[in-house]
Amino acid sequence: MSAKYASIKTSEVPGPKSVELGKMRERLIAKGVGIVAPVYIEKAEGSLLSDIDGNVFIDMGSGIGVTNIGHRPAEVEAAIKTQAEKFIHTCFQVTPYESYLRVAEKIAKVAPGSGLTKSVLFNAGAEAVENSVKISRHYNKRAAAFSFNHGFHGRTMMALALTAKEMPYKAGYGPLPETYKVEFAYCYRCPFNMTYPSCEVACADKIDETWSSPQFEGKVSSLIGEPIAGEGGFIVPPKEFYPKVSKICKKHGVVYIDDEIQTGAGRTGKMWCVEHWPGTEPDILVSGKGIGGGFPLSATTGRPEIMDAPQVGGLGGTFGGNPVACSAALAQMEIIERSMGNVSKINSYMVKRLEELHQRFPTIGEVRGVGAMMALELVSDPKTKEPAVKETGAIKNAALKKGLLILTCGTYNNVIRMHPSIIMPQDILEESMDILEQSVEEVLKV
Ligand SMILES: Cc1ncc(COP(=O)(O)O)c(C=O)c1O
Questions:
Q1: What is the rounded average pLDDT of the residues 304-323?
Q2: Which of 21, 207, 347, 410 has its CA 20 to 30 A from that of 368?
Q3: For residue 63, what is the domain's CATH number?
Q4: 396 and 294 in one domain?
């Protein structure tokens, strides 16, 4: 079949103009900023990215799960322009404006569980994470901050401490603030060598045991968890896991922080991923990425008694809840709400195509994901589950050369992840899966 959307005009990818800018980048940008696909973008529209060499890529990365309804939706663009013609910045803490309140109102209305009614707005996801821990400590006057193995929560000091993966995120940055880890329900690689469902999700019970120990009893302030461990490898826990975790948090007076920065804003077919697991009752929601319509916007939202614990002036920041970002968010959230119904169609088609690949290639150890958040975990041997790191990178590179942008992730660097726009048209989705199939065939040689 011939590609209708992806279009590669240059003999090499990246093309010559991108290579030139790549040299400039080496001179001017710190090498710690890694780049997935060194093609310099000139224009983006819907699910397509056009680079400065005239190549067009289908975007399955969405700027790491941000452009949930595609690039430059008309309503979001219009909202940005309208706001930019009025004012761009005042700082909410100096002279406030209505759109900040409207974003908080919207999040309170759609927040998961019950009673999460007060917010503070920030820019990056990491800021929302940092503040969720600060606020929790202020509220319950306890110190210990917990997170899960395989979790990712950002790159600032506390967010980094809560993040699990050493290389490349944490190595060399110590000492980091003191935090503690508990095991996540990574059933494909169960840390307790158990099998679901006969394990009865014992990994959640272990948290209860840890917090009942003399070391931690009465000392744990918060537990932060991603509904699906995103950077950790799109690890989906069993449906019983989070309802249990949320009950255990309640039992111990621990603030349960739901990190929906990657999984939220309609990505999984519900506004927040934990809504897939009734009985899960977060005390604080942290959101970012997809809520801002491509603008930097994040939020920490929680129960009023928790959110109101810090003193006046104890929360904020110069740019948090920027008016243009708030206008973009309000327009975008509306489109997300009316588009979430489309996610099950995207999911069914992707699951079908990815499962076909799984059947054909033993190197594909597991297909997993929820909604428009799907992944393949690659292993060199399905029995030993040795991570197939080289093949994972090679498939990503082969796909890019054919005009498909996919991302990789995983604690073991062996997961291909895809987060398409939740309104990606069916024919573009089909073409993306065709290119992925060709790339897998090319690398795994069948
Ligand atoms: C689950 C999760 N939390 C927090 C963050 C940090 O967000 P940001 O990069 O906007 O600081 C990320 C970013 O990838 C994320 O996926």
A1: 98
A2: 207
A3: 3.90.1150.10
A4: no
- 31, 47, 74, 77 alpha-carbon torsion, rounded to 10°: 0
3-state SS of the chain: helix, strand, coil percent to 5?
40, 15, 45
- Is 126 a pocket residue for ligand 1 (Cβ < 6 Å)? yes
For tokens 């994040």, name the residue: 298
**pLDDT of 246-265, one tens digit each?**
999 999 999 999 999 999 99
**How far, CA to CA in Å, does 95 sit from each of 15, 84, 107, 326, 359?**
47, 17, 22, 15, 59
Per residue in 222-233, pLDDT (tens digit) is: 999 999 999 999
Same domain? 285 vs 361: no
Map residue 369 onto helix, strand or coil: strand
Listing from the earlier edge strand, what are the strands of the sheet with 118-122? 118-122, 298-302, 284-287, 255-259, 220-225, 144-148, 180-182
pLDDT of residue 446: 65
- Asked whether the predicted pLDDT for residue 320 surpasses 90, the reply is yes
Q: What is the pTM of this model?
A: 0.98
Same domain for 158 and 111: yes
Mean pLDDT on 1-8: 87
The domain tally of the chain equals: 2
Which residue among 148, 152, 284 is best mutated to probe the pocket of ligand 1, counting the most ligand atoms within 8 A of its Cβ?
Answer: 152
- Contact 231 CB / ligand 1 (< 6 Å): yes
User: Is residue 264 domain-shared with residue 315, that is, in the same domain?
Assistant: yes
- Of the pLDDT bands very low, low, confident and very high (cuts 50, 70, 90), residue 1 is low
Clarify whether residues 246 and 172 are in a common domain. Answer: yes
Query: Is residue 300 helix, strand or coil?
Result: strand
What is the domain extent for residue 61? 16-72+343-444
CA of 184 to the centre of ligand 1 (A): 18
Q: From atom 3 of ligand 1, which residue's Cα is the shortest distance away?
A: 153
User: DSSP class of residue 181?
Assistant: E
Question: Tens digits of per-residue pLDDT, 10-35?
Answer: 999 999 999 999 999 999 999 999 99
Q: Which atom of ligand 1 is nearest to the CA of 226?
A: 1
